[in-house]
Amino acid sequence: VFAQVGDIGKILSEGGVNAAWKQMPVLPSLLVRMKDGQASNDLLNEIITLFAPGQSRLAKQVIHRIGEDSGLVTATGRYVEPTLRRVGRTMSDLSGLHWIERFTHESATLLAVQKFATMAKTGKPIDPARLASIGLTPQRASEVSAHILQYGKFGKRGRLLEINMDNRWDLQAASDFIVGVEKWAQKTAQVNNIGEYAKWMTKDLGRVLMQFRSFGMSAWEISSLGDTQQIRRKNFAAFGTLLLPALFAGLGYMARVYTDSIGKKDAQKYRDEMLTMDKIVKSGINYAPAASLAPMVADATSIYTGYDPVFGFARTSGLQADPLFGNPLF
Fold first, then answer.
1. Strand, helix or coil at 19?
2. Is the pTM of this model over 0.85?
3. Residues 259-315 pLDDT 10s
4. How far apart are CA 76 and CA 275, in angstroms?
5. What is the rounded distance in angstroms from the CA atom of residue 101 to the CA atom of residue 54?
6. 201 with 217: CB under 8 angstroms?
7. How many helices (H) and strands (E) does the chain have?
8. In whole angstroms, what is the distance from residue 249 CA to residue 128 CA?
9. CB–CB of 65/81 below 8 Å?
10. Which residues contact 168 (CB under 8 A, 6 or more apart)?
11. Beta bridge partners of 160
12. 3 state DSSP class of 191
């Protein structure tokens, strides 16, 4: 869970502090939904209906595996793999990973919706480079804005209260809005999508080698390459998506160290050793989405050239960050 704190910085940097402030009243509903799954806010209910964010736990439902050649359920698929998947799903429940993933994805979707609403209300367009990254052109975005202004319900200071899509929106505008918001939210919340992986990564050996690496591989395309491309297109607001997540990731590391120190006899000594400025900065870089594969490359280089790993201490699993010895199999 502490490793996900950097995602909050990513969400704020992408959605903007202004959008976050406007939708702050929805925060209690998001937190209550983490507890009982119920949404007590009209806008949040619409978002859940239109975009279905935060469905990672549902996507990890255990099903039997079908053999690729015979089409029959294999012995491995019938007994071993479902058991391992159930264990993994249970561990994600106990650690709170599923709940924090749902919270971050729903928050990212909420801020993306508010971002479109702010564009519609103020008439200030979203950067064309950003629109291109979510599959929209300025002209199509302006059509979406017109529909939000016509059918949406606003509160004080431009806060969007209801989308009111129903059957009133033009089909093309509705499609552009849904696809644009979903793409924006998935990129912001770093949602892993198996469809974006290379085929070998979905095979048995690939899945073993990629244990605890899926986030880094996804972040490479979404953050490292994506944010760099935004900067190259002179969307300099993308600098915030490089720096703010690292700041929040450092805060998450500090919280993790304090939590780990509870019950230790030498708790103060442990905190003094782990909370040096050097380690806080390195941990922030390690968990920043834009860093993606850089910590793994740095640790691999250090180890294989006879130096101590740079980022190994920061991993919550306790494993090293290099591609070989950072895998639980080895």
1. helix
2. no
3. 888 888 889 998 998 889 988 988 888 877 777 777 777 877 887 787 777 777 766
4. 45
5. 6
6. yes
7. 18, 2
8. 29
9. yes
10. 151
11. 154
12. coil
